[in-house]
Amino acid sequence: MSKRLENAMNLYLEGIRDGKAREAVTKYTGARYTQHSTGVKDGIEGFVEFFEPFIARNRKRDIEILRALEDGQHVFLQVYQSLNDGESQWVTTDFFDTDEDGKIIEHWDVISQYVPQTPSGHTSVDGPTEITDLDKTEANKQIVRDLVRDVLVGEKPENINSYVSSEQYIQHNADMPDGLEHFRALALAKDRPLVYGELVLLVGQGNFVATLCRALWQGQPFAQVDLYRIQDGKVVEHWDNAEPVPPKEEWANSGKF
């Protein structure tokens, strides 16, 4: 495991799960720590100010890192959190930028409630976790870039079959069944409620690619994270997280992106 991936994981596990907020953020962040979780201020003191009360409120913290990707200076984590014996359950998706020493210097996140059963009987986080096809990383990243541009942003939506498998498309979205036909119906609808804008971050490793995008849900600004599993040149599985972007006057930092 690389130092940058280890630092990102330990910020979660030691800082939040183990309740050592100040010790972890001091150890694993660099000369700056720019924060895009809109309720958390920048820097070490911002992290401590937010998470020490969080830890005090949530005495039992079951935190499991499910998928972890490393792509150059960037790291992506998908994390399950159960607080106070399941009183609340969350899926967090986090992107980290790191410096030349592997220390964390910037962080973006999108958080959604955990879903125990989707329309096709999955959970919001189950499925394969093994990273394979490392030699196909760049090709798989390009497939996802093209999918976002053509289908989700909508430049050439008719190209959907070029990117998503018609034979197997496993869906972990809370409201959508498996199968390309269901995704196609939503993505190509003229009155679709979710409209993608800018692709902000893309992190890929082998058969997994994660994206952070600006989006609109029924006109409301949203931060949208999608995690794709690619097999034989097509997307075969998808996980997602979405979170409304609060009004600017409520931000504790420079904003979600």
Throw out a few tags for this protein.
single chain; Nuclear Transport Factor 2, Chain: A; five-stranded mixed beta sheet; 26% helix
* Outline type: globular
What are the secondary-structure elements, in order, as H or E?
HHEHEEEEHHEHEEEE
Which CATH class of the largest domain is shown?
A: Alpha Beta
Task: Specify the structural class.
Answer: alpha+beta
Low-confidence runs: none
Major sheet: arrangement of strands: 1-5-4-3-2
Domain count: 2
Distance between the termini: 28 Å
The value of Rg in angstroms is: 18 Å
Strand segment tally:
10
CATH topology of the largest domain: Nuclear Transport Factor 2, Chain: A
**Helix content class:** 25-40%
- The average pLDDT score comes to 97
Number of helices: 6
Largest beta-sheet details: 5 strands, mixed
Beta-strand percentage? 35-45%
